[in-house]
Amino acid sequence: MAGMPSQSQQDPTMWVDSNDDPRQDQQHEQDERGTYQDYLGHYRLTLQMKCDGLTPEQLATRSVPPSTMSLLGMVRHMAEVERVWFRRVLSQQDADRFWGPRRGDDDWNGAVGEQAAVDEAFAAWRGEVAYAEEWLEAHPDMDAVIDDPERGPIAVRDVLVHMVEEYARHCGHADLLRECIDGRTGQ
């Protein structure tokens, strides 16, 4: 309506005006792979939006001691998750971890409030997301099964559903982390 304030003007906790939200709702029929791509894209963009506009110190803020969880740690963690599932499992590459040994929590613990750490984390995450998107474009068969030495046979669709689950869970954490920092909850 003309003269009405936008959604973001009405509620300062929202990220963007609902008409300007860069995440697109799935409003058309598509195949299974397209559905996974849309959901992954939506959640990846949501994580990015939850981090936008914060200083390195704010990104490294831990919400509830003794938890080591922070938004920056989450970006580092998701870079590792993308790397494990798309490079190590689906591509069968011997890709080293970015931050410390498996289950060592170095992705969370090493998230310090310094610009270099922020730049490194986002570069790693964006690089792994780009690799995953390229891999998915080149491998349309959701029924394909990869024989992972550690996990056994696993279907591509199962990896993609797991990735959606992983992002959905952590975007919920990101909501709470961001709200602790500046009160914004977003949409």
TrEMBL record:
<feature type="region of interest" description="Disordered">
    <location>
        <begin position="1"/>
        <end position="33"/>
    </location>
</feature>
<protein>
    <submittedName>
        <fullName>DinB family protein</fullName>
    </submittedName>
</protein>
<dbReference type="InterPro" id="IPR007061">
    <property type="entry name" value="MST-like"/>
</dbReference>
<dbReference type="InterPro" id="IPR034660">
    <property type="entry name" value="DinB/YfiT-like"/>
</dbReference>
<feature type="compositionally biased region" description="Polar residues">
    <location>
        <begin position="1"/>
        <end position="12"/>
    </location>
</feature>
<feature type="compositionally biased region" description="Basic and acidic residues">
    <location>
        <begin position="20"/>
        <end position="33"/>
    </location>
</feature>
<dbReference type="Pfam" id="PF04978">
    <property type="entry name" value="MST"/>
</dbReference>
